[in-house]
Design brief:
The chain contains no helices and 11 strands. With about 120 residues, the chain is mainly beta. The strands form 2 sheets. Strands 2, 4, 5, 6, 9, 10 and 11 form a 7-stranded mixed sheet that branches.
Length: about 120
């Protein structure tokens, strides 16, 4: 079992910044990567950013250059620094403990946090 707790969401004006945190506990030794996902009303949940155990990062095209994912291994915490926020970034943001399959592709596990709401006003 893995427990994930997100925090740091809120209401911000366009162009502003927020920093999300995700604290992980439990069977975290099975984690291959940590991912931040988001889900806007009426849309599917999408990957925003990923950081692997080797420190490699991936970003969705829509956030490349504006968002930065990082981690603090000592605290078992992953962060998402979001700068230059846009109204289209409005969503509930979730973190997930990802796994990797035999082909090297990452996929989300069944472990999700409760989510944190990010609202960007224009």
């Amino acid at each position: 079992q893995v427990r994930l707790v997100e925090s740091g969401g809120g209401l911000v004006q366009a162009g502003g910044s927020l920093r999300l945190s995700c604290a992980a506990s439990g069977s975290i030794f099975k984690i291959d990567a940590m991912g931040w996902y988001r889900q806007a009303p009426g849309k599917q949940r999408e990957l925003v950013a990923r950081i692997t155990t080797n420190g490699r990062t991936n970003y969705a095209d829509s956030v490349e250059g504006r968002f930065t994912i990082s981690r603090d291994n000592a605290k078992n915490t992953v962060y998402l620094q979001m700068n230059s926020l846009k109204p289209e970034d409005t969503a509930v943001y979730y973190c997930n403990t990802e796994r990797v399959d035999l082909s090297g592709s990452y996929y989300p596990s069944d472990y999700w946090g409760q989510g944190t709401q990010v609202t960007v006003s224009s």
